[in-house]
Amino acid sequence: MSETTATPNTRAVKAARPRASLAVAMLGFFVVALDAQIVNVALPHIRADLGGGLSGLQWIVTGYTLMFSALQLFGGTLSDRIGARRAYGIGMAVFVAGSAACGAAPSLTVLIAGRVVQGIGAAMITPTSLALIREAFLDAVQRGRAITYWALGGSVAAAAGPVLGGVLTQFGWRWIFLVNLPVGIVALIVLARVTPSAGRVAPFDWAGQIAAIAALGGLTFGIIEGGSVGYAAPEVLAAFVVAIIGAIIFLIAQARGRHPMMPLDLFRSGTVSTGLGIAFVTMAAFYGVVFVQSLYFQEQRGASALVTGLLFLPMTGLVAIFNPFVARAMERLGKIVTTIGGMVLMALGLIALACLPADAPILVAALLMVPVGLGGSFTVPPVTALILDQVPAARAGTASGILNTARQMGGSLGIAIFGAVLAVQPTFQTGLRTDYAVTGAVLLVLAVAALRLRRAA
Fold first, then answer.
1. CATH: 3.40.50.2000, 3.10.129.10, 1.20.1250.20, 2.60.120.10. Which one for 265-457?
2. Mind telling me which residue stretches traverse the membrane in this protein (predicted)?
């Protein structure tokens, strides 16, 4: 009797836990992706309330993306060491605390510090959310479906972010951060139903991690503040020196360290190196466009935050709708051709935006953003597949972590560079056109480089 009674309960728990793991993973990826997009439309309102110039607005965005990119590999290692469930819980708690700090920030400095804390939490949530799915779904087919749902959460967040940001800003910009609190609390409650994860010995590359943060932080500070105070300023030059020293120490640590976080031999493959370059530039272009167009619509064309969010909807919405067709394009055209097509489409959109007259209807500008978003979305899956095809299965996790880091670095430095160009140009329109034209040209050069990979293959 007792054995018969226990069996259904056991089965119920086992059936519930994969669903709980998927729900937690989706909530985590959703809130992390949402926070990367929801902030931009509120930037003018934040500046009106807390003050600060263009560099301050850049730091609000890059404070998050910088730590997100710099600590992703650390987050994966921590997940392996203490278990995915525990690492996810720590990451979500840190993210919620950072969101609360941002929502209550009395000054721009405190807001940026809160964004840094959010980025630290996000860097732990993303790799652990996938690890939870891997642990909960042992069947490859079911795991593939679960990952599809996980990715859908990110797509929905990217599409809804600007619109939701515009809506919440009508009630006060602080709500774009406070909205994370109930989502994070629900995720932590559901996490209690997830099966505890086992940890294993996973050594940290402390020298490489610290050097990477110094290099990325110094470079980002130099680019952003250089556009504000001049690139000959002592603090800017010092930041670039820190970046160079950090980069040298990082390369030495990866070449000679016993447990490198980014093994340099992966870069011997031309496909891997080119793929990482494509991932970096396409993400820099996308994040840069979202940042610049948010300021353009509101400060140059007088649109409200809500209208600005709606103007982003054609780009973000169509990206979510057309995302399932990328796999078909890869099967029919091949990975490299699909990647090249995406980059060319993105470049054409950027060049069209650069050539758009200053008094053109803002709806036209919104429509010209569509090829930028669509083109970028058509490069992500094929570039990922190309890189993973070039590495052994045992190093697939490391390669994926490096790829995600390259993407987030591109987003962080893209905002820094785009904003710096705006700061040094005589007018906003001149800076916008310079940003888009140069980035479009770089994408076309990378498309040619990818074409050479196709010939080599």
1. 1.20.1250.20
2. 20-39, 59-78, 90-113, 149-169, 175-194, 206-224, 236-255, 276-297, 303-326, 333-354, 360-388, 409-428, 434-453
